[in-house]
Amino acid sequence: MKKALILKGGWDGHEPELTSKRFAGLLEKHGYECTISDTLDVLGDLDYLMGLDLVVACWTMGEIDDKYVDNLSKAVGKGVGLAGCHGGMCDSFRQSVQWQFMTGGQWVSHPGSDGVEYTVNIRHGSSPIVEGLEDFEVCSEHYYLHVDPAIEVLATTRFPKVPYYHISNKPVDMPVAWTKFWGNGRIFYTSLGHHDDVFDKSPNAQVMMERGMVWAGEGKQYAIDNNLTDERFLNTAKMY
Questions:
Q1: Omega into 160 within 30° of 0, i.e. cis?
Q2: Distance CA 120, CA 36 (A)
Q3: Cα atoms in the Cβ-side hemisphere of radius 13 Å centred on 149
Q4: CB 184 within 8 A of CB 79
Q5: Fold of domain 2-106+175-233
Q6: For 112, which of 18, 79, 116, 132 could close a Cys bridge (C-beta 3.0–4.6 Å)?
Q7: Contact by Cβ (8 Å): 75, 184
Q8: Can you give the pTM of this predicted structure?
Q9: Which stretches within the chain are classed as H helix?
Q10: What is the mean pLDDT of residues 52-57?
Q11: How far apart are the first and last CA of the chain?
């Protein structure tokens, strides 16, 4: 049976209690044994992390010990997947550049705050994660992120939607969902999920999250089946 660790904590406004339970339920349908942890101390056990298939982040803001990020980085490099949504992954630990490098982006603003109506545009052919999905509407926070140019963008949204300082610049298509690799590990992120009910109101958002988690969790077995190693990642300098 595959194993997933779901990190639940940080700012309560993003409803980590509800999202962590939702994601556990989705993963259990795919045969996962899920552990929900309300402490980051679990990241102190590298051997435990190496035994996982997937880590799901539902932890907004807060601080994290450098050693914990280093351990997770090593585990993901060996093939353990990492997935998350909204501020639960890409606004988790603002002081940790290693976390931001690994996850592929960092929230910087949501002009208009909550209740902005916008369109999520699917990039057809970008990934099986979005296969068969059509563009859809969302009413929520409209995330503006600084992103890693190495990410594979699966869906976008057009900025600006509401007036703010950035409106003086040209319109841009901001990534909403992406994948990337960290060593042999697979990373999936979607900016949707300010509140748990976004996944009910916009069902395609849940489809992307479910497929993205499953895709990320398949990386470890893929590395094993294809005799991949992470030796080329071992001679690395610390990012802090």
A1: yes
A2: 30
A3: 0
A4: yes
A5: Rossmann fold (3.40.50)
A6: 116
A7: no
A8: 0.95
A9: 16-28, 46-50, 66-77, 87-90, 97-103, 198-201, 203-217, 219-225
A10: 98
A11: 36
Enter the tokens of residue 116: 């902005």
Closest CA to 70 of 39, 40, 99, 38: 99
Distance, CA of 181 to CA of 223 (rounded, Å): 12
Residues 61 and 94 sit within 8 Å (Cβ to Cβ): yes
How far apart are the C-alpha atoms of 100 and 102, rounded to whole Å? 5
Distance between CA 80 and CA 82 in Å, rounded? Answer: 7
pLDDT at 228: 87
- Whole-angstrom CA distances from 195 to 138, 148, 175, 202 are 12, 25, 19, 12
How far is Cα 88 from Cα 122, in angstroms, rounded to an integer? 22
